[in-house]
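User: Let's play a game. I give you a shape written as tokens, and you guess the letters that built it. Ready? Here's round one.
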């Protein structure tokens, strides 16, 4: 049964990914480690981990034959576990497999596996957090929360991010779907109705950025501008720590292993400078040990 929580095949459904999945999971694992090591003994009333696109709990990379613990199981097996876990996936097979894997954990009573659309279920999760935060508990701080938002493409809606911003402390690691946007933006720009791109950015203002970029003779930097726009909106939600002060940016780019084509970025936001400090430590090197210039 312990195989359920190990990075190995356990006979339950598992999903195939490209080798780049290792990079994403490594950043997350190290963020969780630094976050929980520093915070587990502070008087937070709860430390919640929220994974809105949780998957089945394991990832298989055919190219290497390796199995990895997926994001929910990385958080569950951390050396200092969170006090509460909210795992959501819209696929029943994924949630069933994830629940079975979690069931052998010594902290299974802290886990809620929810089947459905994250963009709807986020309301229940945030209300649960806010309800406990509003209780009078002497000597305790508010809850400290971390949300990992890792859809396949453009399924994460801005209104979901805005909802997650409601608790006092909620760090965010967001999959910014660069390739998905490249595929959809041309058509979405022309569309009169609301598109997945509009839902992702929470409006149509992105279309102006896209239009300015499209009309430039040398077209560079579209995603820098779009991510800055997204981060400005995060700042409006209270994420004072959405930006670095220089131009380098701090969103690791995950690329396709063979063609090196950009797939997605990991965008970080915190309301507290310590969150940013942790993230900058984490992204100083990638899973291959390569350093980044910061
Ligand atoms: C990239 S995978 C997540 C991988 C996971 N983070 C891991 O590390 O193993 C994206 C997941 O989101 C789920 N999904 C897609 N749209 C969703 C939605 N609207 N609500 C909830 N889950 C969704 C898919 O079923 C899929 O399992």
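Assistant: Ready! My guess for every position:
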């Amino acid at each position: 049964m312990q195989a359920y929580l190990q990075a190995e095949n356990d006979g339950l459904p598992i999903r195939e990914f490209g080798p780049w999945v290792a990079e994403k999971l490594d950043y997350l694992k190290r963020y969780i480690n630094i976050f929980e090591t520093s915070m587990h003994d502070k008087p937070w009333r709860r430390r919640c981990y929220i994974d809105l696109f949780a998957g089945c709990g394991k990832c298989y990379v055919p190219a290497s034959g390796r199995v990895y613990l997926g994001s929910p199981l990385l958080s569950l097996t951390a050396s200092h576990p969170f006090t509460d876990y909210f795992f959501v996936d819209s696929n029943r097979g994924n949630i069933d497999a994830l629940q079975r894997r979690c069931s052998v954990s010594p902290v299974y009573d802290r886990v809620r596996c929810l089947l459905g659309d994250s963009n709807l279920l986020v309301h229940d999760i945030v209300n649960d957090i806010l309800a406990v935060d509003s209780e009078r508990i002497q000597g305790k701080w508010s809850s400290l929360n971390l949300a990992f938002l890792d859809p396949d493409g453009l399924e994460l809606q801005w209104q979901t991010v805005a909802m997650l911003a409601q608790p006092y402390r909620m760090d965010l690691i967001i999959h910014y779907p660069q390739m998905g946007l490249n595929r959809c933006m041309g058509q979405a720009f022309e569309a009169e109705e609301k598109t997945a791109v509009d839902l992702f950015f929470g409006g149509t203002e992105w279309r102006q950025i896209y239009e300015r970029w499209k009309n430039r003779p040398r077209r560079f930097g579209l995603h820098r501008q779009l991510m800055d726009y997204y981060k400005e909106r995060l700042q409006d939600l209270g994420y004072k720590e959405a930006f670095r002060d220089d131009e380098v940016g701090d969103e690791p780019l995950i690329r396709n292993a063979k063609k090196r084509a950009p797939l997605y970025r990991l965008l970080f936001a915190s309301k507290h400078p310590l969150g940013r400090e942790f993230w900058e430590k984490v992204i100083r090197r990638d899973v291959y040990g390569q350093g980044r210039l910061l």
